[in-house]
């Protein structure tokens, strides 16, 4: 193995994935590479990943490294803290089969290549540790639920929006696992019902990918594009409980109007609360985070707010995450043949009942008999 290519550097994988070019080598600092990050790098068609953190720490089974490996993208882990002092953006490097990294034929770092066997071994250990993480997660969830119960008791003011929610369906999109497949599966529902569309940060761009314009963007504005923000009809900036809103500066710099909503929990939680409190008839969620692995990949130690919000919304919430898996199947050859036979069946009857066709078939029958005799 010898990999050559220019490098693209960013400690935030999701930011790097937006600008890295096909054939480049990604240099990241990402502990426990998650599925969404891995898929974004695969989509960018990169050659390799140099990670300055543990790609699988062993706390939980994160699937990112396996996804990269399955798609032929090599992962090299390095421990050298001063590595970034030796390399700059767009510089050309070479990586050999031992994980040694060269620049202009000079060795600048040595790493460990995460081969398939190593990934499988580390994932097995991570699965064994999952029960311990689950125990901690449950305790933290209960603790956070005590602190964040105000979300469902009405302690947090829901902003007044221009969009009319009452008796309408609301589609909330988060750019999470299988969001593309799920959006494609429910596309006919979207076209027919025309729900209010809320993009949670990058979920707004997910809607744009399908030719849909988000009515509202909710989030801290760290992963949504400027184009999406400009197209959205309304923007709700998720702020800390003390009122500080890091994403507000970006909105102001774009000259856009927004509403600030201080609240604990996640941006997708408050998106659901906004829809519910404004009397939406039904809330359909795509790509949202709702299980242990989702939250651990997001770096959260508990899901108190999400648990409480879902408890409050109840039957009005339909989680469409993974709905595309219900429709997976393949068109078999025998189905095609049956379709052809079915199509020709009525044609055959018409031919049989036609007088001229009967004469023609009789002549052909005689001809065949003469040839065989």
Which properties best describe this structure?
43% helix, 373 residues, 15 strands, 7-stranded parallel sheet, globular, 3 domains
The helix content, as a percent range, equals 40-55%
Q: What is the count of DSSP helices, taking H or I runs of 4+ residues?
A: 15
CATH fold field value of the largest domain = Rossmann fold
The secondary structure category is alpha/beta
Radius of gyration: 28 Å
Q: In which order are the strands of the major sheet placed?
A: 7-6-5-1-2-3-4-8
Under CATH at level 1, the class of the largest domain stands as Alpha Beta
DSSP strand count? 15
Mean pLDDT score: 85
The tally of domains stands at 3
Characterize the largest beta sheet: strand count, sense, and whether it forms a barrel: 8 strands, mixed
Instruction: Give the CA-CA distance, first to last residue.
Output: 70 Å
Shape: globular
CATH architecture classification name of the largest domain = 3-Layer(aba) Sandwich
Which residue ranges are poorly predicted, with pLDDT under 50 across at least 5 consecutive positions? none
The succession of helices and strands, N to C, reads EHEHEHEEEEEHHEHHEHEHEHEHEHHEHH
Strand content: 15-25%
How does this structure look, described?
This protein has 373 residues and is α/β, with parallel strands linked by helices. It has three domains: 2-121, Alpha-Beta Barrel (Aconitase, domain 4), CATH 3.20.19.10; 149-326, Rossmann fold; 334-372. Helix content is 43%, strand content 18%. The chain contains 15 helices and 15 strands. The chain has helices at residues 13-19, 35-43, 64-70, 116-148, 150-153, 179-185, 187-193, 203-209, 226-231, 248-253, 267-277, 292-297, 304-313, 333-353, 355-372, and strands at 2-9, 25-28, 48-51, 74-77, 92-96, 100-103, 106-110, 112-113, 169-174, 196-200, 216-219, 234-239, 259-262, 282-286, 317-319. The strands form two sheets. It has an eight-stranded mixed beta sheet, covered by helices on one side. A seven-stranded parallel beta sheet has the order 13-12-11-10-9-14-15, with helices on both faces. Strand 11, helix 9 and strand 12 (234-239) form a beta-alpha-beta unit. Helix 4 (116-148) packs across helix 13 (304-313). The model has no long low-confidence stretch (mean pLDDT 85). It comes from Acetoanaerobium pronyense.
